[in-house]
Amino acid sequence: MCRFLAYSGEPVFLSDLVCAPTHSLVHQSLHAAEAKTETNGDGFGIGWYGERPEPGIYRDVSPAWSDENLVNLCRQVRARTFFAHVRAATGTATSRANCHPFVHGRHMFMHNGQIGGYHRIKRRLEALIPDALYDGRRGTTDSEAIFLLALANGLIEDPIGAMAGTLSTIRDLMRAAGIAEPLRFTALLTDGERLTAYRWACDGRPPSLYYRQSETGLVVVSEPIDGCREGWRVVPTGGTLQARGGEVTLAEGPEALRERIAA
Questions:
Q1: What is the pLDDT of residues 62-81, one digit of tens each?
Q2: With a threshold of 0.85, does the pTM exceed it?
Q3: Where are the domains positioned within the chain?
Q4: Which of 18, 133, 146, 154 is nearest to 86 (CA)?
Q5: Which of 80, 83, 201, 250 is the Cys-Cys partner for 206 at CB 3.0 to 4.6 Å?
């Protein structure tokens, strides 16, 4: 499983959250504490919103812990909203195109989890993505496929409903293929102003997700970056966090979401 971080609030240097803390995302790339594997060395990516509506992106296949360019860039870039992700591949190639976050227009998306038995439904899943969106597919991951199909299902207008419908469709494909492995989906979506964080799984066991809100901004993480759970709140299983303009809300409880993507 991967590890990630998102921030939204007053502009800060990326290094303040991505590199500097005791259990920073760079540290987690080598020493994750709440993932299936301790090492997340199959590439990394950062995406941030600056002076333009569309985000800037920097992704590479080198491990985050060994990339000096990542550290130097984070020291110089200050942003009001940004994503950072370190990847542990789950069956697809280690390539720049497969590193998160993924971008469509001004929207940015990153994912931690997997579609069980993805290789068995990949072709049928991709066939559901309209040509206009499929033309923008650059990698081979299940994460990017989920993002593109959700966009086709109205993700921009309805982040929760469109994503729930998308995962329901994927569960139908999995059932038809006789796949017993779970669908686990912890993910983040933003357009630079509004942020949505999902923590869903068909078996009720999604990857970890925490958040902390202060007077200056909101941080959402796979693992607390200070190495201490005090001050962090857990996004509940089946829950969805939405934030905009300093307001944070939690939507749909575990039972409602489990019913929509249940096995």
A1: 999 999 999 999 999 999 99
A2: yes
A3: 3-261
A4: 18
A5: 201
